[in-house]
Amino acid sequence: MDTLREMFFPVQNKTLGGSMRVESQSGIGLPENVRFTKYRIAFSVVIVQGSTNSLALWSGLGLTEPTDLKLQEAQLRTEAKLELLSETFADAKRSQARAVVVMTQADMPPRVRRSVTGQPRDRFRF
C-alpha cells in the first residue's frame, strides 16, 4: 500500500490530476480518504478495503485468525472513515451545502458482474 500511496498521493492534500486542495487523512497514513467542497456541494471520498475490511486470511501463511496488527489497522481505517464522513456532514450542515456526495470504490465480486439477463458484462454502465 505504501508504494501505491507514494505513486497516487505524492503531495499531501492535493489531487493527483491537478492543483485542487483537499482535506485528506494523510496525517494518519490514509491519504486516499479525502473531503472537499466545490460549488457548495460537500464531497467525501473513502476507500473501503475488500475481503472483510482486509481481515480475510491470505492462503499459504498458515494463519487461523487475523493478527493483532491487522485488527488494529482495520479499527484505525474504520474509525477514520466514520470521522471523515461525520465531519463532511457536519460541515455541510454548518455551511448550508446544497448536497453531500459520498464516493467510494469497490472491486465487484464476480456474481455482480452479470447483467440482469445473466450474461457477463463487458463493462459497467451508469
Return the string of H and E elements. Answer: HEEEHHE
| Beta-strand content | 15-25%
Sketch the major β-sheet: 4 strands, mixed
Largest sheet: spatial strand order: 1-2-3-4
Give the helix tally.
3
Gross morphology: elongated
SS content category: alpha+beta
- Gap between N and C termini: 29 Å
Overall average pLDDT: 82
Total DSSP E strands: 4
In percent, how helical is the residue content?
A: 25-40%
Low-confidence stretches: none
Radius of gyration: 18 Å
Tell me what the structure shows:
The chain is of the alpha+beta class and 126 residues long. Helices cover 32% and strands 17% of the residues. The chain has three helices and four strands. It has helices at 2-8, 50-54, 68-95, and strands spanning 23-25, 30-38, 41-45, 99-103. It has a four-stranded mixed β-sheet with strand order 1-2-3-4, with helices on one face. A hairpin with a 4-residue loop joins strand 1 and strand 2 (30-38). It is elongated and about 50 Å long. The model has no long low-confidence stretch (mean pLDDT 82).
